UniProtKB/TrEMBL annotation:
Span within the parent record: 1 to 239 of 390
Function according to Swiss-Prot or TrEMBL: Specifically methylates guanosine-37 in various tRNAs.
Coiled coil regions, renumbered to chain: none
Keywords: Cytoplasm, Methyltransferase, S-adenosyl-L-methionine, Transferase, tRNA processing
Annotated S-adenosyl-L-methionine binding sites: G109, L133, G134, D135, Y136, V137, L138
UniProt keyword Transferase, yes or no: yes
Location in the cell: Cytoplasm
Enzyme Commission number(s): 2.1.1.228
Membership in a protein family: Belongs to the RNA methyltransferase TrmD family.
Protein name: tRNA (guanine-N(1)-)-methyltransferase
Catalyzed reaction equations: guanosine(37) in tRNA + S-adenosyl-L-methionine = N(1)-methylguanosine(37) in tRNA + S-adenosyl-L-homocysteine + H(+)
Subunit structure of this chain's protein: Homodimer.
Length: 239
């Protein structure tokens, strides 16, 4: 998989070369490139933003550097991912969709946003997805791009050591994960639930499922009634 990042803060994305994705790069599974958007500016001050038409607070990112970056990198056939609080909420299902793509191009803008014509233009050339982490506001798209990357890259075949841990875990089953325990069996007066020491795999599986259900009902009742509503968020290429 190829991953490109367009940002005015390339250092913010340095963690990509360290942790989990770093290993995937070393193993040849990932081709990962971080690009400084200012490379595609031409004025003395390397300007990337300007005041909003119609007035109001904050600045909006000008479209020209994005357009030139798209031309130089070539975005045809890639999925352009634009982190924004007004995007489609990131879920495990969306992470799985993105993990099936050959190439993602992340466009990290400041939170006041990128001129909307950038999305419109990119969508005339390839698939574009505006993605949100949740109902809160970050200052820019970089932290969100890191989160999306980690959610996606760990799903790539050959990335994780233990494929079974992917299937069982939180959200893959639509439920929160059951609690985990390891040695010692008694710690500071706290016991591991005895069923886990019983050796009865049927009872253990039933107990874990019940724990997952109880936790989900208590903490995230919305997940018990969740139905996937994909489609309406995808912005397909024009032709
Ligand atoms: Cl994806 N971007 C920004 N800037 N803020 C966010 C977000 C994304 N998701 C939640 N808040």
């Amino acid at each position: 998989m190829r991953l490109d990042y367009l940002t005015i803060f390339p250092d913010y994305l340095a963690p990509l070369e360290l942790s989990l994705p770093g290993r995937a790069v070393a193993s040849g599974l990932l081709d990962l490139q971080v690009h400084d958007l200012r490379r595609w500016t031409h004025d003395r001050h390397r300007t990337v933003d300007d005041t909003p038409y119609g007035g109001g607070a904050g600045m909006v990112m000008r479209p020209e550097p994005w357009g030139e970056a798209f031309d130089d990198l070539g975005i045809e056939g890639a999925t352009v991912v634009v982190p924004t609080p007004s995007g489609r909420p990131l879920t495990q299902a969306l992470a799985r969709e993105l993990a099936a793509r050959e190439r993602l191009v992340f466009c990290c803008g400041r939170y006041e946003g990128i001129d909307q014509r950038v999305v419109e233009h990119a969508a005339s050339r390839t698939e574009v997805l505006e993605v949100s982490l949740g109902d809160y506001v970050l200052n820019g798209g970089e932290a969100a791009a890191l989160v999306v990357t980690e959610a996606v890259v760990r799903l790539l075949p050959g990335f994780m050591g233990n494929a079974a841990s992917l299937v069982e875990e939180s959200h893959e089953a639509g439920l929160l994960e059951y609690p985990g325990y390891t040695k010692p069996a008694t710690w500071r007066g706290l016991e591991v639930p005895p069923v886990l020491l019983s050796g009865d795999h049927g009872r253990i599986a039933a107990w874990r499922h019940e724990q997952a259900l109880t936790r989900t009902a208590e903490r995230r009742p919305d997940l018990l009634h969740a139905s996937a509503a994909p489609g309406e968020w995808a912005i397909e290429p024009a032709t």
